[in-house]
Structure formats: C-alpha cells, structure tokens
What we know:
Elements lengths: L2 E5 L9 H9 L14 H15 L3 H8 L8 H11 L1 E9 H10 L4 E9 L5 E5 L5 H11 L3 E6 L5 H6 L2 E5 L3 H6 L5 E2 L2 H12 L2
Parallel strand pairs: 1-2, 1-5, 2-3, 5-6, 6-7
Antiparallel strand pairs: 3-4
Helix pairs in contact: 3-5, 4-9
Amino acid sequence: MMDIVCLDLEGVLVPEIWIAFSEASGIPELKRTTRDEPDYDKLMKWRIGILKEHGLGLKEIQDTIATIDPLPGAKEFLDELRSITQTIIISDTFTQFATPLMKKLGWPTIFCNTLEVAADGEITGFKMRCEKSKLTTVRALQSMGFDTIAAGDSFNDLAMIEASRAGFLFRTTDAIKKDHPQFPALESYDEFLGAIKSVLNV
C-alpha cells in the first residue's frame, strides 16, 4: 500500500494569507476566503479588482507574508508526518505567496498556482495549474498507484477529501462540519497525527 498525505495549506498549516493582508492593509473586504466563497475563480477576480482599486500589488502582499509564521505546532506536525509517510501540500494559493512560508516549514513539496504580475508589480491575473486542482491532483496520484489521505478546512478541499481513502476536516467552520458529518473534524495537531497514524496502521 503506497500512501500519500495531501494537505491544504492555509488554515491548516499557516494562517489565511488574505485575512492577514486584509488586516495589514485595512481593507476588510479582503477577509473573504474559500470558506465564504466556494467559486475560487470568482473570488480571485474580485480580489484582484480590489487590489487594483487601492493601487496595491505583489510587493505589498509579500511584505505582509514575510511577517506570517506557520500556525503554532504546524512545522513539528509536518516534520513528524513526513518522517512517517510521503506528504504533499496541495493549495490554491500562488508560488509568489507560498515560497517564504515553505521556507519556514522546512521546504515541503507544494503544488499550487501562479500569479500573472506586470513589470510594475500589479497583479493582473492568475494561472491555475489545472481545472479543480485539488481533486485532479488526488486523482492523478491515485492513477500512479498511490492511496491518498486528504485534509483541509474549506469548500475547495471537500472534493479531494471525498475522493481519498481517508479524509479529515481540520479546524473548519461549523457550517462545513454540519454539512459533512461523514468526515472526522479535528482541532489539534496531536489529534490529526493520531488520526493519520491510525489510517496508516503505524
């Protein structure tokens, strides 16, 4: 049995980047995340519009990201998990946002998307790695002979959790818990590690 754990990034291992930027920039509308808006394409186009309106670009967001640390206990959790089994972070974030956070997490593997940025630093668009990136990635791993175990906290994680041999919700909303009682909802990294270990029989 070849297992691979697929984890969401924001809300699971690091704070939500857009919420942190919303607080740093004083633009409350930017607090909206995939927990609020299931349509990622719509959400990103709307965010880019707000950035343009306020004259903010990649540099300002990266300055905020430089101040963000992984959630307390996340790096230790990930280190231990990676010592037991292959682990990939599958995120709808962007390389330009994720890289500094990957450094703080000890350079785990991440599959994410990329931003289109003009010479002056304005974010003009974004390029998704593939359609339904989380589910597509899990299906591709399965086609290569892996059994996936998936976890996340948002609407856009549900398809990969559903498609996996085992799936968990981690620090999600009450609404998502209520609508998806079939998935164990975990709150602490110890509990999370324990749940993965029991699936792996280690």
